[in-house]
Write a structure and sequence with these properties.
The structure holds two protein chains of two kinds.
Chain A (H helix, E strand, L loop, with lengths): L3 E3 L4 E4 L4 E7 L6 E7 L6 E6 L3 E5 L2 E6 L4 E6 L8 E8 L5 E2 L3 E6 L1
Parallel strand pairs in A: 2-11
Antiparallel strand pairs in A: 1-3, 3-8, 4-5, 4-9, 6-7, 7-8, 9-10, 9-11
Chain B lengths: L3 E3 L3 E4 L5 E7 L5 E8 L3 E10 L2 E4 L6 E7 L2 E6 L8 E8 L5 H4 L5 E2 L3 E5 L1
The chains are: A mainly beta, B mainly beta.
C-alpha cells in the first residue's frame, strides 16, 4: 500500500466550476502538507502549504487537512482554463516529501 | 526568486551508456534531491544530499549514483542506462532552516525536469 493515495483522474470541468482534489495517507508522522501544481513539461511549483488541521485559503484556492481521518483536499473556486495542470499532494514528517501520483485537471473554456 | 536549473531538457541515450544529469541551485540550499516521475506513480525519490559530499539513498536508488562536490551542484549518474530508466527526472532543493514562517521547512523548489529516453 502506498503511503499517499491520490486519484490520478483525469478530471475535466467547465470554466467556473469548483474543482475538488483529494489525497489520503497512512503515515501518522506526517505533519506538513503541500499541494504542488505542475504545468505540462515543467517542474512542480508550490501552490499551498499547511501544517495543521483545518482550512487555509489563498485567493481561489482552499486547502483542507483532516489529520484524524488522514485526508487532505484542495478546492479551486471559479476555475479558469489557466488552472489546467497536474496537481500533486505532498506531505512530510521530516525533510523528505512523499508525493501522491498527481491528478490531471482540464478546465474547458 | 529561487532558481533550480537542470543541464538538459531532453536527452536520448543508448542502452549501456553512462549518463550524467546535472542540477544547479542558486539559493545556497543545503538539501538537494533527485526524483523520477512516471505516469501513475508520481514522484519517487532516488537520492538526496543534505550537505556537500553527503548522500542518502531514497526509495529507488538501484542503478543510480550521485555526486555533490559543491553545495550548489548535485549530479545524478546512470552507470549503465537501461530502457526502464526512461523517465522524467526532476531535481529539487530546500533549506530546512529557511522559509519556515511563510512556506514551511519542507517546501522543495523544483527544476524544469529532464526527459530521458533510453533506446
Amino acid at each position: 500500500q502506498k503511503e499517499v493515495e491520490q486519484d490520478p483522474g483525469p478530471l475535466s470541468v467547465p470554466e467556473g466550476a469548483i474543482v475538488s482534489l483529494n489525497c489520503t495517507y497512512s503515515n501518522s508522522a506526517f505533519q506538513y502538507f503541500m499541494w504542488y501544481r505542475q504545468y505540462s513539461r515543467k517542474g512542480p511549483e508550490l501552490l499551498m502549504y499547511t501544517y495543521s488541521s483545518g482550512n487555509k485559503e489563498d485567493g481561489r484556492f482552499t486547502a483542507q487537512v483532516d489529520k484524524s481521518s488522514k485526508y487532505i483536499s484542495l478546492f479551486i473556486r471559479d476555475s479558469q482554463p489557466s488552472d489546467s495542470a497536474t496537481y500533486l499532494c505532498a506531505m512530510s514528517g521530516d525533510y523528505k516529501l512523499s508525493f501522491g501520483a498527481g491528478t490531471t485537471v482540464t478546465v474547458r473554456a | 526568486d529561487v532558481k533550480v536549473t537542470q543541464s538538459s531538457r531532453y536527452l536520448v541515450k543508448r542502452t549501456g551508456e553512462k549518463v550524467f544529469l546535472e542540477c544547479v541551485q542558486d539559493m545556497d540550499h543545503e538539501n538537494m534531491f533527485w526524483y523520477r516521475q512516471d505516469p501513475g506513480l508520481g514522484l519517487r525519490l532516488i537520492y538526496f544530499s543534505y550537505d556537500v559530499k553527503m548522500k542518502e539513498k531514497g526509495d529507488i536508488p538501484e542503478g543510480y549514483s550521485v555526486s555533490r562536490e559543491k553545495k550548489e551542484r548535485f549530479s545524478l549518474i546512470l552507470e549503465s542506462a537501461s530502457t526502464n530508466q526512461t523517465s522524467m527526472y526532476l531535481c529539487a532543493s530546500n533549506h530546512p532552516r529557511g522559509d519556515i514562517i511563510i512556506k514551511g521547512p519542507e517546501t522543495q523548489y523544483f527544476g524544469p525536469g529532464t526527459r530521458l529516453l533510453v533506446l
